[in-house]
Design goal:
The chain is an alpha+beta fold. It has 19 helices and 18 strands. The chain folds into 4 domains: about 150 residues, Alpha-Beta Plaits (2-Layer Sandwich), CATH 3.30.70.3400; about 160 residues, no CATH class; about 70 residues, Gyrase A, domain 2 (2-Layer Sandwich), CATH 3.30.1360; about 160 residues, Up-down Bundle (Multidrug efflux transporter AcrB transmembrane fold).
Length: about 600
C-alpha cells in the first residue's frame, strides 16, 4: 500500500514542512514602485508633472523620505495644478492639490494591498510550502520562500507585472518613416560625424551593409500599406551572408546612426546581440522618442534568437517591433491561462505554449479585430516585451488564443500563473535579496536535533533517578507528547523553523513539569498515611487546578504571539501552543489512566515514586 506512488505522494504532502532557516531558500524585500503608479494614473506622460515625479523619486530615494511629501514640495514650487492631470481619477474635477494627494495616497495603499494579495496567489500557485508574505512599512513586501532552488524563476515570478496586451504591428511604410526621421535627427546632431576617414573596416564591407540597408527601406517603400514588417524583410532569409558583419562601423553610423544597427533576420527585424545595448541607449533618448509618433511604440522581443550563417556558424540577435501604442485587448479579458505543449501537426508542435481563454466581451472584440486585420501581424505583449507576432490568417472566434516562443514548460506555467493571479497595479522592485543555502539549514537542523536529543535524555534520566517507577511512566507520557505535537504540526500543515524547534525543546520541559507537580502531591498524600489509590486520586485532583491554570495562562500568551506575530515568532507560538495542549493531555490523562489500569486489575500496595 505504501509503495504506491499516489500514496507516497499524499503522505509526502502531509509531512511537516521545514522553514527557510532549516532548509534554505530566498528572503526577498519587494518595493512597490509608487512613482510609476503616480505616473500611470496621470494624463501627463512627457510634461511638467512627469519631470516633477522623476525629481521627487530621486530625492526620496536618496534622502529616504516620503515620495508624496517630496512631490508636494515640487508641485507647490512649480505651481502645478494636479487636477489638470488627474481629472479623470475618482471624480477629482475642480478639486485642490491636497485632495488629489489624498486620493493618490489612497491609491498607493490599495496598490500595495493588491500587490500583496496577487503575490500571495502567485506563490501559492508556485507550490512553495508555507511561504511568509507580509507588508512592511508603507510600500514594501517581505517574501520568504523556503526550499526554493531556482532563484531566477522565483525572482521573475515575484517581479513580473503581468501586463498582457494585444497590439497591432504597424506597416512597413510606418516603420520606414520613423527610421528616416530618427536617422535625420541623429545625423543633424553631429554626434556620429566621422573624425577619422581611416576605419578598420574595408570600404567594400561598408558599401555592402549600406546597400543592404537601402534595399530594405526601398522594399518597405514599394510594399503596400497592409504588408507586415516581417513580410518586408522576408527576402533577407536567403541573404545571410551580410550577417557576418557583427559590428556596425562608424562610417555606416555617420549616415545611418539608427537604421545602421538594423538587420533582417528569418524572424523579422532585429539587432545583433553585441549591439543591443548601444541600440537600446538610442531608444531611451528623449529626442529619439519624440520622433516616434504618439500612436506608435518600439518594443523588444522577449529573448534572443539564433540565426544560422552560410559558413555553419550562428549569430544571436533580438527582434524589435513597431506596434500601435494602444492595445486592442488587455489581460483583463482573460479568464483562464493554462500551460501545455503545442498540438501535433501545428506550427508549435511539442513546444511549450500558454492557452488563453477570454470572457464574452473579449471574445467579441477579438473576433472583430482578427476579422478586420487579416494578413496583418498582431503582437502579443507581456510586460512590454513581444513574445510573438503571428500573422492573422483568418477571423478567430471563440475567444481563444495562445502564447508561444517560450523557453520551457516552466516558463509557460509561470506565465499562466501570473496571468491567472492578475496584473500588479504597479511594478515591484527587489531592493534586498538573501539566499540561504541548504548546508546552512542542515547545520541548524543538526544543532537543533542535537539539543533536542540531549535535553530529552537528561530529562529522562532525571525523572527515573528522582521518581523511580513513576518517572518511567512520566517518560512514556513524554514520548507520546512529542509524537502528538509532531502529529498536530503535520495536520495543521505547519512549518517548522528554528524558533519552532526551540518551542519543541521547551515543550519537553513543560511536559514533565505537570508530572512533577502531580508526583509531589502524591508523595504528600502518602506521607499523610493514605493508601496508594487514595493518594493517587487526591494527588491528581489537587494538582489539576494548578497545572490547568499554569498551562492556560501560557497558552493565552502563545495565542497572542501567534495572532500578532509572523514568521519565526508565529512558528514558535504555534509549536508552543501544540506542545501545551498535548502535554496537558499526556501528563494528566495518560499517566492517570495507566495508574487506574494497573490499580483496577490488582490493588497497588506500594508505589515506586
Amino acid at each position: 500500500m505504501l509503495e504506491e506512488p499516489a500514496t507516497l505522494k499524499t503522505l509526502h504532502k502531509q509531512a511537516i514542512n521545514l522553514g527557510l532557516d532549516l532548509q534554505g531558500g530566498m528572503h526577498v524585500i519587494l518595493e512597490v514602485d509608487i512613482p510609476i503608479l503616480a505616473q500611470n494614473l496621470s494624463d501627463d506622460k512627457t510634461g511638467e508633472l512627469l519631470q516633477a515625479i522623476k525629481a521627487a523619486e530621486k530625492v526620496s530615494t536618496t534622502e529616504r523620505t516620503d515620495f508624496f511629501d517630496e512631490l508636494k514640495v515640487l508641485v507647490d514650487v512649480n505651481n502645478i495644478k494636479l487636477v489638470k492631470y488627474y481629472s479623470d481619477l475618482d471624480g477629482l474635477t475642480g478639486k485642490s492639490n491636497d485632495d488629489v494627494f489624498s486620493t493618490l495616497r489612497e491609491h498607493a495603499e490599495n496598490a500595495v494591498s493588491s500587490a500583496l494579495e496577487i503575490i500571495r496567489n502567485r506563490v501559492d500557485e508556485f507550490g512553495v510550502s508555507e511561504p511568509t508574505i507580509q507588508k512592511s512599512g508603507r510600500n514594501r513586501i517581505i517574501v520568504e520562500l523556503a526550499g526554493v532552488k531556482d532563484t531566477e524563476r522565483a525572482r521573475n515570478l515575484l517581479q513580473r507585472t503581468a501586463l498582457l496586451e494585444f497590439k497591432l504591428v504597424k506597416t512597413g511604410q510606418d516603420l520606414q518613416g520613423v527610421i528616416e526621421k530618427i536617422d535625420a535627427l541623429l545625423v543633424s546632431s553631429g554626434e556620429f560625424a566621422l573624425e577619422d576617414s581611416a576605419d578598420t573596416q574595408t570600404a567594400d564591407a561598408v558599401d555592402a551593409v549600406i546597400e543592404a540597408s537601402d534595399s530594405l527601406l526601398a522594399e518597405a517603400d514599394t510594399t503596400e500599406s497592409q504588408d507586415s514588417i516581417e513580410d518586408i524583410f522576408d527576402e533577407l532569409d536567403g541573404e545571410e551572408q551580410d550577417l557576418d558583419i557583427f559590428t556596425t562601423s562608424s562610417e555606416i553610423l555617420s549616415t545611418k546612426p539608427f537604421s545602421g544597427y538594423l538587420r533582417g533576420f528569418p524572424t523579422g527585424l532585429g539587432i545583433v546581440s553585441n549591439e543591443i545595448n548601444k541600440f537600446s541607449a538610442l531608444l531611451e533618448r528623449e529626442d529619439v522618442l519624440s520622433e516616434v509618433p504618439k500612436d506608435g511604440q518600439i518594443l523588444w522581443g522577449n529573448k534572443n534568437q539564433t540565426a544560422a550563417l552560410e559558413d555553419g556558424t550562428t549569430v544571436e540577435y533580438r527582434n524589435i517591433y513597431y506596434v500601435k501604442k494602444e492595445a486592442v485587448l488587455t489581460g483583463g479579458v482573460v479568464t483562464d491561462a493554462r500551460a501545455s505543449t503545442g498540438p501535433i501537426g501545428s506550427d508549435v508542435s511539442g513546444q511549450p505554449v500558454v492557452n488563453l481563454t477570454m470572457n464574452s466581451e473579449g471574445s467579441k472584440n477579438w473576433s472583430r479585430f482578427t476579422g478586420a486585420n487579416i494578413e496583418r501581424n498582431v503582437a502579443i505583449v507581456l510586460d512590454n516585451k513581444v513574445y510573438m507576432a503571428p500573422v492573422i490568417r483568418d477571423r478567430i472566434p471563440g475567444g481563444r488564443t495562445q502564447i508561444s516562443g517560450l523557453d520551457d514548460i516552466d516558463e509557460a506555467k509561470d506565465i499562466g500563473n501570473v496571468l491567472r493571479a492578475g496584473k500588479l497595479p504597479a511594478p515591484v522592485n527587489i531592493i534586498e535579496e538573501r539566499t540561504i543555502g541548504p548546508s546552512l539549514g542542515q547545520d541548524s537542523i543538526d544543532a537543533g536535533i542535537k539539543a533536542l536529543f540531549i535535553g530529552f535524555v537528561l530529562v529522562i534520566i532525571f525523572m527515573i533517578f528522582y521518581y523511580h517507577g513513576a518517572g518511567v511512566l512520566a517518560n512514556l507520557a513524554l514520548f507520546l507528547n512529542i509524537f502528538f505535537v509532531l502529529a498536530v504540526l503535520a495536520m495543521l500543515n505547519a512549518t517548522l523553523t528554528l524558533p519552532g524547534l526551540a518551542g519543541l525543546i521547551l515543550t519537553i520541559g513543560m511536559a514533565v513539569d505537570a508530572n512533577v507537580i502531580i508526583f509531589e502531591r502524591i508523595r504528600e498524600e502518602l506521607d499523610k498515611g493514605k493508601t496508594v489509590k487514595a493518594a493517587i486520586d487526591s494527588g491528581y485532583e489537587r494538582a489539576f487546578t494548578t497545572i490547568f491554570d499554569a498551562n492556560v495562562t501560557t497558552l493565552i500568551a502563545a495565542f497572542v504571539l501567534a495572532w500578532i506575530g509572523s514568521g519565526p515568532i508565529k512558528g514558535f507560538a504555534v509549536t508552543l501552543s501544540a506542545g501545551i495542549i498535548c502535554s496537558l493531555f499526556s501528563a494528566v490523562f495518560i499517566t492517570r489512566s495507566v495508574f487506574m489500569l494497573f490499580g483496577n486489575k490488582k490493588p497497588i500496595q506500594k508505589l515506586s515514586i
